[in-house]
Amino acid sequence: MTEGVIRKSYGPPPLSEDEIFRYAGCGRPALEDRALLKSCLDEVLPLLSYRVAYRRLPLIVAGDCCDFFLFSLRSEKLSLRLQNCTEGIVFAATVGFEIDRLIAKYSRISPARGLMLQAIGSERVEALCDAFCEEMAVSEKKELTPRFSPGYGDLPLEAQRKVDSVLNLSGTVGIYLNESLLMSPSKSVTAFLGIRDQG
Amino acid sequence: MNFREFLQKNTVYLDGGMGTLLQEKGLPPGELPERWNLTHPECITEIHRAYFDAGSHVVCTNTFGANALKFSDEELERIIAAAVENARKAASESSSPKEKFIALDIGPCGRLLKPLGDMDFEAAVALFAKTVRIGASCGVDLVLIETMNDSYETKAALLAVKENSDLPVLVSNAYGENGKLMTGATPAAMVALLEGMGADALGANCSLGPRRLASVAEELLEKASVPVLLKPNAGLPKTVNGKTVFDVTPEEFSREMEALVRKGIRVAGGCCGTTPSYIRETVSRTESLAPVPVTEKNLTVVSSYTHAVEFGGAPVLIGERINPTGKKRFRQALTERDLDYILAEGLRQQEKGAHVLDVNVGLPEIDEPLLLSETVRELQTVLDLPLQIDTANAEAMEKALRCYNGKAMVNSVNGKKESMETVFPLVKKYGGLVVALTLDENGIPSTAEGRVEIARNILKTAESYGISRKDIIVDTLAMTVSADHTAAVATLASLRDVREKLGCQTSLGVSNVSFGLPCRDSINSTFFALALENGLSAAIMNPDSAEMMRTYHSFMALRGMDENCASYIEKIPALLPASSAPVPTVPASKEEGDRSELCYAIVKGLREKAASVTASMLESSSGLSIVENEIIPALNRVGKGFEEKTVYLPQLLMSAEAAKSAFDVIKTRTAKAEATAFSGKVVLATVRGDIHDIGKNIVKLLLENYGFSVVDLGKDVPPEDVVETAVSLHAPLVGLSALMTTTVPAMEKTVSLLHEKAPWCKIMVGGAVLTQEYASAIGADFYAKDAMEGVRYAESLLPKA
To answer: Which domains does chain B have, with CATH numbers?
Structure first.
């Protein structure tokens, strides 16, 4: 009925400098911004690791309740997203701790660099999610819903605990929840996907 | 037989996996396996008994996650008591003729420690202590700390065992495919930490199969002077037909374990996916082999949370710059608790090539125990060099050693009875490599013989505390040659004797030799070369001194420690005097409206240039006039651009950093508050529960740029601390930041407490979740939508100095 947790490592997913500049709040990057980005990328890219853990679960959506067999969630927005899906995927993705160390360091001595590293981390983990979702869609030969994370819309952050209980986040991908249910490493994503039957 | 004795003489067999077997017996997903000690005692006993029957000497109680985060105190006691009872029952029921021991099993607590996570080190120690006390009172024979993937949490657990029991303790870490712990530590770093704290055996478990853990096991065997433990998985998990299976069979597993037992593994078992048959085959393949003796490796080593530094090969450079002695600017930073300044000093020394950093924050008027441990904690969030705890204050030393994430250097002990009685117990408890100064109640002997004699006495006393000579590094004391022209000769002779006669590593505070002389670098670097040739293992020195660094790289090249002189050739250009290596100047293509080079440098975000231009301007103008006529207008231009959306945040910050570097030059030259343009201090904090501080840091940087004096309380700050600071400084303005909706209540509490206790103080708030409406609702005086708005508000509020 339920499959166990599967772990995967990836190579670096395709990188979008435009996305990074967008995260950095930099509409039209100047020469200096580009130089800063390049030097940050040179420093951080070799330190990143790209890891995902996921689990396929049966899914029944009824009203605002999404029942994943091992747990259920109440959220109108999520139910809407997962409509007509009979299976779901819960996954967690992270680019690791090293970037947090650099962010901690540079936020003390060079906030510009700290900001750029924040932006790079956000772009990298989202790109990892894209790579994972694309691969799932191909291997399932089915359409996947866009991903939906705890904290989106009316899905409370508390859903993180359920993700943790089915994925064993610290054991499988090295993601830890803190008291406020935020994740360490900070550049991590947890999310739900629906698998849609293409009828 | 007691376990310690047994471990000395035998290859010890542990048990195998528990989780997989429990799932087979029907443990549903999501249920905590530790509860089964109470609800299914017969299942647990059966598994333990199967392991004893298969040949295990030690079974580990089913208490991997038994801690007070997951269970109430009352349930925790019942669970651990039942777990020990289940194991005991299995021991009495098993027909195996072998010696049988019960280990209290302790796994990671499930939360991550600061700074990467949010759990306090001391909270983790307290958490593990609870489990240890219950286990010890139930009569276990030993403790197994296992599957730890963070060095800091490992230290917390080991400290808890040591402080709450006399039980033997085995410590095992989970290494990843890169051969390191999740948070970065190498096997060598873990050996340094764990041996220093007195683990009875150490090793690796989980994560990988025996073949892929082999290189980790071999590194542990090479470095460790205590027995090494290995408890691998049955390979990697795969999902086949909806079931988790592991890809290494008992036969392959035991064959690979045999190879490693032959190399010296003395404690063998299995982890995830292994079953009694894995243990049985491993035992039958290896039990006839004579245990490989555990040898003393005699490595003198310190470690950080990522790596170990060994003494006795290439000379070790210990950066001396985190020290207030004779440094006005540093003293000012300490009294103002400006930790950023101290961290920058540390980072710069690392960049210049220091291998270890000395940390001394001793000033008469400060709370040294508090500040030293805080500095250590902050340093280990931004850099990964091992630290040398440098203090004469025993309380400060203990606090710093306790929170240090690794095996520290300790500076220092000397031949005085009192000093040894104070320092040695701390080194014994927390581990450490201690610098031993060759002086005693009678002062510093003038002869080499006298100093060697003191060193000998220190080594003997250390041994009586159980500290071996590899953990003592002798400093034969560099004295100034301007006072005694034979001083250096005696120091050098005693260095050689300590190395040759006592077999000890050595260190020196090199710069002392030139005190009182002109051109000190010249004397220092020559003395440094002589000392290295006479057996100096480590120098406490200034990595900023190009002359010292040139000597170091030259020595390495001449002494055959730099193949092809590659490092020398790479490093030397940056160490040449400025005149012989002309630096191309940036063409000053000034844009219209730039008043000066400084203004241009700030607008363009050129840090180095801003600093160098400021330095030359200070020769003819005052700091304040530079601030008013150059820096502030430049910032205003960039700030205005930001407000008009022609300049974006990264550029704003780069300009702010350039301005800050200009300020730093002014501050250093004047070393007083001349650079402050406004009177009164602005207090900043990210509120309790929130660990996001980038926004607050940006505000801080900009405020400082505009000439405000800022007191930064950091992140996750309790309301009481904010209020206390605002009251004690009579601060006219407090800025609070919160990123998450969950922490807005903490902000509200801080605001109302401030209004009550510091009614004169204005409060501005900002952060991702806040809006003007929210800010008004919680009673803030001002909502700053971005950092520039915060600056403008502060300008409107605080009077000019």
So the answer is: 3-286 (3.20.20.330), 300-544 (3.20.20.20), 597-672 (1.10.1240.10), 676-797 (3.40.50.280)
Sign of CA dihedral B264, B267, B272, B274: positive
Domains and CATH numbers, chain A: 6-196 (3.40.109.40)
Contact B697 A185 (CB under 8 A): no
pLDDT (tens digit per residue) in B336-362: 888 888 999 999 999 999 999 999 999
Tokens 């999501």: give the residue: B30
Extract the tokens encoding B39.
């609800």
Q: Do A178 and B743 touch (CB under 8 A)?
A: no
Task: With both helix axes pointing from N to C terminus, report the angle between B394-403 and B368-382 in degrees, rounded to the nearest 10.
Answer: 30
Provide the token pair at B518.
């002109």
Which residue has tokens 């980005």?
A37
Tell me if A105 and B184 make a contact (CB, 8 A cut-off): no
Residue B717: CB atoms within 10 A of its CB come to 25
Q: Has residue B201 got a pLDDT over 80?
A: yes
Query: Quick one: closest CA in A to B700, which residue?
Result: A111
Query: Which one, of A15, A18, A48, lies nearest residue A34 by Cα?
Result: A18
**Single pTM value for the model:** 0.86
Nearest CA in chain B to A158: B742
Find chain A residues with C-beta within 8 A of B657's C-beta: 110-112
Is the CB of B694 less than 8 angstroms away from the CB of A4? no
Give the pLDDT mean for B371-375.
96
Residue with tokens 């000690």: B37
Cα distance from A50 to chain B (closest Cα, Å)? 13
Give the tens place of pLDDT for each residue, A19-44. Answer: 999 999 888 888 889 999 999 999 99
Q: Which of B118, B347, B654 sits opposite A178 (nearest CB)?
A: B118
Residue B781 identity (one-letter amino acid): D
Q: Taking CB atoms and an 8 Å cutoff, what residues of chain A touch B237?
A: 4
Average model confidence (pLDDT) across chain B: 92
**With contact defined as beta carbons under 8 Å apart, do A21 and A119 qualify?**
yes
Q: What are the angstrom distances between the C-alpha of B494 and each of A129, B438, B564?
A: 62, 10, 33
Q: Residue B183: closest CA among chain A residues belongs to which residue?
A: A97
What does the pLDDT read at residue B707?
A: 82
A-chain residues near B701 (CB < 8 A):
111
Name the phi and psi angles at B271, rounded to 5. Answer: -120, -135
Distance of CA B74 to the CA centre of its chain: 35
- All residues of chain B having their beta carbon less than 8 Å from the beta carbon of residue A25 are 648-650
Contact B650 A26 (CB under 8 A): yes
Structure tokens at B641: 């651009």
Residue A136 distance to chain B (closest CA, Å): 16
